[in-house]
Request: fold
Amino acid sequence: MQISPIPSAWRSGQEMISAVVLASASSSPSSEQELFRPHENKPLLQWILESALASDLAEVICVIGNLTKARREIRLVDQRLFWYADISGCQQNCASVVAGLWACHPQSQGAMFLSGGPPLIRKELINALIERFKRSSALIVAATLAGRPRGPVLFRRDLFPELVKLRDHDTEHSLLDAHKEQAALVEWYHGASSANGNSGFPQRI
Reply:
């Protein structure tokens, strides 16, 4: 296994946080097809990857089934972006989760699973989750919308062994219930004003 070098921005002792984008058929039968659909003249997957790369994430790992199609349609090159071809053909979410964790840098302190798309996946929300992760000892930092877990979830490395043991149709959100006492939530307001009058920005709860 070849280990990618740590980006220079994280060589000064900062915590490395990885992102895993589940974009293969293992995530859901229609996930790949949906992610290649255009959104404002770009594939939805490209919007997600651009938001991740604009944030403070150290690396972005995209688990994809059709790598040839991704290379053809996603016009994006970055030293922090890594493609992982999921050739298992397994129709189970856990297969993509395991593949993404396996590809994370061994010095990464946490893995953020990115799901959804614009407007939920934005660099402001990603950075708010990372900030909360670094300022707390929470095992899980999750985004919520109207009080319900949605979109990105960030797991501390301590939970990686539990993530790889997820059963066939479990999702990464399944661990939230099991560790709700050790989870921190970041409420995301989009299209509605928050208590402080902001729209489209996170509030820590």
About this structure: The radius of gyration is 16 Å.
